[in-house]
Structures are given as C-alpha cells and as structure tokens.
Write a structure and sequence with these properties.
Blueprint (H helix, E strand, L loop, with lengths): L8 H13 L1 H9 L10 E6 L4 E6 L2 E2 L1 H5 L4 H4 L3 E6 L8 E4 H17 L7 E5 L4 H13 L2 E4 L6 H11 L3 E5 L2 E3 L2 E3 L1 H9 L7 E5 L13 E3 H4 L12 E2 L3 E7 L7 E6 H15 L7 E4 L6 H13 L3 E5 L10 H9 L3 E4 L1 H8 L4 H4 L8 E5 L5 H11 L6 E4 L33 E4 L5 E2 L4 E7 L9 E2 L3 H9 L6 E9 L5 E6 L3 E4 L2 E4 H9 L4 E11 L3 E10 L6 H15 L8 E5 L12 H9 L15 H8 L3
Parallel strand pairs: 4-17, 6-7, 6-8, 7-14, 8-11, 11-12, 16-17, 16-18, 18-19, 19-20, 30-31
Antiparallel strand pairs: 1-2, 3-13, 4-5, 9-10, 14-15, 15-24, 21-22, 21-23, 23-25, 25-26, 27-28, 29-30
The structure holds 5'-O-[(S)-butoxy(hydroxy)phosphoryl]adenosine (WT7).
Length: 632
C-alpha cells in the first residue's frame, strides 16, 4: 500500500501537527509518492478572497497513469474492479489492473476517433456498468473534462447541465436495470438533446439489448466503434491545475452549480484520504455502494481505490433487490473487507426482517463507513451491531462535493470513534467553528457554523463558467474562510458532530437539493402561484420534502393536483426530488418586506406547532392558523 498511511494515534497526532505547521512540506511529501511527468514548482499558492487556489503548480501528470499504468508492474494481475450486476443470476465480471488499463485505453481511443480532445466537456449519463468506469477514466486519459450526471435525473435536468458546460459529447446506454425495473436511458438522452446544441456525438453502450432510436451522424454504438481499436492509448499530459471534472450539485439559490476539481490536488487528496480513513490493506476487497453519479462514487469507488492500487467493487443494483439481504449476500460472495454506504440505506434495511442480515456470515468485514448525511444513533448501533458484529470500526465520514474527499472522520483503528460523530479532522484539514458574526469559537462543548481556515488539495477551485458564484457561495459569508453550509458541534474532547445544513439546502437520502430549485420546478405547474419548500425529519430518507403551495383557484380534487405537481417535479429534476408532502394553502407566512418565514414552515412540517415564536411581525398572521390546521 502507498507509503503515506498513518498507523497509530501518535502518528496521527504527528502528521496533524506537521500539516498545520508546515502544510507545504506535509503535502509535498505525500504528492511525491505519485507519478509525475514533471515535478511541481510551488506546492501551494492561495487566497480565499478571489478565491484563487493552486496546488502543485507547474506539475505535469495524468491521473490515469497513477490509477492504472504505475500499478502494471507490481499489480498487473491484481483485481482492480469487480462488477456485480443487478440480477444475482447474471454473471459478475472482474478486471485486473492490466485488463482495466486496456479497457480504458480502448474507450479513450473511441472517444478520440469520435472527435473528443483535451479540454472538451463530456457528459456521462450511464448506469452502474463497467463501461461507466471506463468512460470516466477514458475522459481523464485524453484530458477531456467529465461531467457525470446521475442517471436518475430527468431530461430537463440533464439538458441544463449539458448546456451549462457546453458539452460536445454524451456517453450513455440503451437502458438500465434498477431492481425489478428497466429504464429507457437513451430515450431520456434524446429528450434532453432536443434542448442542447453543443452536442455533436452520442456514444451508446448496450446494456439491455433494446432497439433504440439512433440519430444518423450523431449517435453511434460503442460496440461498433470499439472494433479493431487499439488497447493502448498514451495519456495526455495535464497541468496540475487543469480541470479534471465538473460535478453539478445544488446550492441554496438558483440552478445547480458545476463544482470544478483539478488534476493534481484532487488526485493526491483522493488517495490519501482513502488509504487512511479505511486503513486499506493490499489484499482488501473494498465496496462503496454509491453511484458514480455522485462525488462519493467519483472519489471512493473509482479514483481513490485505483490510485491506491486496491480492488474496488461496483454494484449495479439496489439494496432491496431481489430481497433486503442483497448487500450482505454480496459481501459474503466476494469476501468484502471494507464496506462504505449511506445512512439512508441502513435505515431502510433496518425496517426489514433482521434475518435478512443474520443469515449471512459477514465474517470478512473489517471496517464500515458511513457517508452523506448525519447518521442517527439508532442506525449507527444497528449497523455496528448487526453488520459489523461489534468488531468493525465504523467511520462516519463528513465531506462534500466541494471538498473532493473526506474531511472530518475517524481513521479506522487509529483515532477515536464515537457514535454519530464524524470526530477528528484528517491531517491537513483545519476546521473552525464560528458564530453568526464570523468570530471563531475556540472553546469546546459548543455549536457553530463549520468553516475551514486553510486550503487542502481537494478543495473546489471554481464553479464552472461562473467564478463569482463560487466566491459568493463559499468564500464571502465569513471573510478569509471556506464556509461549508453546515452547522456542527464540538464536544468536550474536540470531536465534531455534524448537525446538518444551515442554509436552504436539504439532504434527501444523502442527495442534495436546494429548496429554491424544487420551488422553481413546482412553480412551473400551471395551477401554481407560489410555493415554499422545507425539509422535515424523515425516518428513512433523513429529510423529507414538504411543499406548501398556493394555487390559482381552489382545486376540485386536491389529490389530482398533488399528483400533477409531483409530475412537474419529476419532469424538471427527477424522481429523486419528489415532494413527500404537498399542502395546498391560501397564503404563506411572510414578513412585511415579503420574505417567507421558513422557520415557521419548518416547525409546521416537523409537526411541532407548540411554539412558533413571534408571529406578530407577519404580514398576515391569520395564515399561520390556517397552515397549522391543514398540516399533513
Ligand atoms: C452535505 C454534502 C460527501 C459525499 C456525499 C454528500 C452532508 C455528508 C455527512 C456526514 C453529516 C454529512 C452535509 C454536507 N453530509 N456527509 N458524515 N455527517 N452530514 O455530498 O451532496 O455534496 O452533500 O452532506 O450536510 O454539507 P454532497
């Protein structure tokens, strides 16, 4: 395993101390464990005002040479990727590092043959099949910037993302499997492309063997294109700060923003955080259940494990198919040692029959991880007891699309673990809590807004096409700090517990949505005048979506209207953003200046109307009684 792994608590303390006192020396030593075509000139240049952050400036590299080529000598025949299909009766597929290298090179050559070149943006809208992994790495191989859009987003959402980045190509599949369902992916792409003019080529991978519409001159089948294509493709030499990828995520205002990560820093941070947090050993089988469409899949299914030379398992299906024991069946089938999933998955499985877990041995497991949202104590204990049999450290990893990799987390078997606590920052990470005025809170046993005071290699560089938006979203709330948007508590021992978002972002099953984004979608419905969306505690999803909606006229059938509103959201964003509750109201609680008092709506949605605070400053205080009475 890479020689930058911390093994003891003392080593953690030493590494942490050095990372603060001499961050450049610290990161430069770690970066030296990678393959660079040319070494960097300066380790770090930064200011958080612009922001302008450059790691390993002047360094030249290709991340896929670090993921693949450099392992060929020592790990050529080691498994790089194991793919488990949706249907347990279908055969799984394994790729050694040598085979994966060939697949990626071939895919890269197909991209080139179809006109892709360095700097192009390529949208990838694909199910969890091996070709998705090849496609992402193939883009990186030729220096094209990948923008993976989770295959559950709607055509409209995909089109917005394609247009924002002006993608020239889309990589997709005919359809996808999701449990018992099959979904026509290519049809969604066709619909999206009716609104996109930048896309010149669509490469379609066959998954279901469906006959799909192929547009002459634009659409090609991957299996045709790959015929006779070379299994070797020299990697494009990239600058450290060249863009590696764009990944869209939601903010508190407006449309999703394209978070930009760059080659050098992201690479260093992905491997370092991966190897350390999970304490991965050479022969471990590691399984991250996230979809590659999210940052967790980017960093901890694909890049992190491959950079570390590990064996990563990729699963096409869902935890509940064909039954609630599927995760555990797969763990036993491959002897998975490290298992990384989301609290929402755990909570949904907790609802099933306990025998669905107890029927499997799970003996191979050594380390468990959690990511995406706060894990409540009940879920933590269930996971730790029934899956980890109380012998596996369970690391709660806090981070964000914008941070590129894990920031605050226990390090398995190295640093302390406390249920529902992300615990300590990784070396190189300098969190601080501030109050509403931005003043640092230095004592413990306090709550505050979570910020970072120093850059780390995986930090967001910009929001694609709109640098000002990055500045406003992350670097302007508190001067000189990166603001996470989360509130956190630091306990008496200095361990962090993440409380959740303090902005208008809600986290549904570990997926992020802006309340404004969902309101925008709802407002597209012709019957709707205005809407306000808030999150509320949901047993399985963490947060549910509660929409208060004002209609043009009192609907005859509220249920029809609700169904229609849901349809609108599904069309604009996707099924994943469906409101759980829609309350039709005649007005919204607003201040005299017209600002919606979300605090009140949140209380109603939570079912706690005993103390709504002062409502006397409202424009129309009566509306609150109506909303309370009609609460769902
Ligand atoms: C937001 C980031 C990081 C990959 C998946 C989500 C919440 C994430 C935790 C955790 C409590 C967490 C935060 C964060 N979050 N991990 N371990 N404990 N909250 O990435 O979509 O960018 O969302 O997810 O609120 O800000 P994302």
């Amino acid at each position: 395993m890479p020689n930058n792994q911390i093994k003891t608590y003392q080593e953690y303390e030493e590494a942490y101390k050095r990372s603060v006192e001499d961050p450049e020396g610290f990161w430069s030593d770690i970066a030296s464990t990678f393959t660079w075509r040319k070494k960097w000139n300066t380790t770090l240049e930064w200011n958080f005002e612009e922001p302008d952050i450059k790691w390993f400036k002047g360094g030249r590299l290709n991340i896929t040479e670090n993921c693949l080529d450099r392992h060929l000598k020592t790990r050529g025949n080691k498994l790089a990727l194991i793919w488990e299909p949706n249907d347990p009766k279908e055969r799984f597929v394994r790729y050694t590092y040598r085979e994966l290298h060939e697949k990626v090179c071939q895919f890269a050559n197909v991209l080139k043959k179809n006109g892709a070149k360095k700097g192009d943006r390529i949208c990838i809208y694909m199910p969890m099949i091996p070709e998705l992994a090849f496609a992402v790495l193939a883009c990186a191989r030729i220096g094209a910037i990948h923008s993976v859009v989770f295959a559950g987003f709607s055509a409209v959402a995909m089109a917005d993302r394609i247009n924002d980045a002006q993608c020239s190509m889309v990589l997709t599949s005919d359809g996808l499997n999701r449990g018992a369902k099959q979904i026509p992916v290519k049809r969604v792409v066709d619909e999206a492309l009716e609104r996109c003019y930048s896309v010149k080529k669509v490469i379609v991978v066959e998954r279901l063997g469906w006959a799909v519409n192929m547009v002459e001159g634009r659409d090609v089948w991957y299996h045709d294109e790959v015929q006779g294509v070379s299994k070797d493709c020299p990697a494009e030499e990239m600058d450290s700060e060249d863009m590696l990828f764009i990944l869209y995520t939601s903010g508190s205002t407006g449309k999703p923003k394209g978070v930009v990560h760059t080659c050098g820093g992201y690479m260093v941070y992905a491997q370092y955080s991966f190897s350390n947090v999970f304490q991965v050993q050479e022969n471990d089988i590691y399984w991250c259940t996230a979809d590659i469409g999210w940052i967790t899949g980017h960093t901890y299914l694909l890049y992190g494990p491959l950079l570390a030379g590990s064996t990563s398992l990729m699963f096409e299906g869902v935890p509940s198919y064909p039954d609630m024991g599927r995760f555990w069946q797969v763990v036993d089938k491959f002897g998975v040692n490290i298992f990384y999933t989301a609290p929402t998955a755990i909570r949904s499985l907790m609802g099933g029959d306990i025998d669905d877990v107890l029927s499997y041995s799970l003996d191979s497991l050594k380390v468990l991880g959690s990511v995406g949202e706060p894990i409540n104590e009940e879920a933590w204990h269930w996971y730790h007891t029934h899956v980890g049999k109380e012998r596996c450290p369970l690391v709660d990893t806090w981070w964000q699309t914008e941070t590129g990799g894990i920031m605050i987390s226990s390090i398995a078997n190295v640093t302390p673990i406390k249920p529902a606590h992300a615990a300590y920052p990784l070396p190189g990470i300098q969190p601080i809590l501030v109050d509403a005025e931005g003043k640092e809170i230095t004592e413990n046993e306090v709550e505050g807004y979570l910020c970072m005071k120093f850059p780390w290699p995986g930090i967001i560089r910009t929001t694609y096409g709109d640098h000002e938006r990055a500045r406003l979203s992350y670097f302007s709330t508190y001067k000189g700090l990166y603001f996470t948007g989360d509130g956190a508590k630091r306990d008496k021992d200095g361990l962090y517990r993440i409380i959740g978002r303090v902005d208008d972002v809600i986290n549904v099953s570990g997926h992020r949505f802006g309340t404004a984004e969902i309101e925008d979608a709802i407002n597209h419905n012709e019957h709707v005048v205005e809407s306000a969306v808030v999150g509320y505690p949901h047993d399985v999803k963490g947060q549910g979506i509660y929409a208060f909606v004002i209609c043009k006229e009192v609907p005859e059938r509220e249920d029809y209207l609700r169904a229609e509103i849901i349809e609108t959201v599904v069309e604009k964003i996707g099924k994943i953003a469906k409101p759980d509750k829609i309350q039709i109201v005649s007005g919204l609680p607003k201040t005299r200046s017209g600002k919606i008092m979300r605090r009140i709506l949140r209380k109603v949605a939570e079912g706690d109307t005993s103390n709504l605070g002062d409502t006397s400053t409202l424009l129309d205080p009566d509306v609150v009684d109506e909303i309370k009475a009609g609460a769902l």
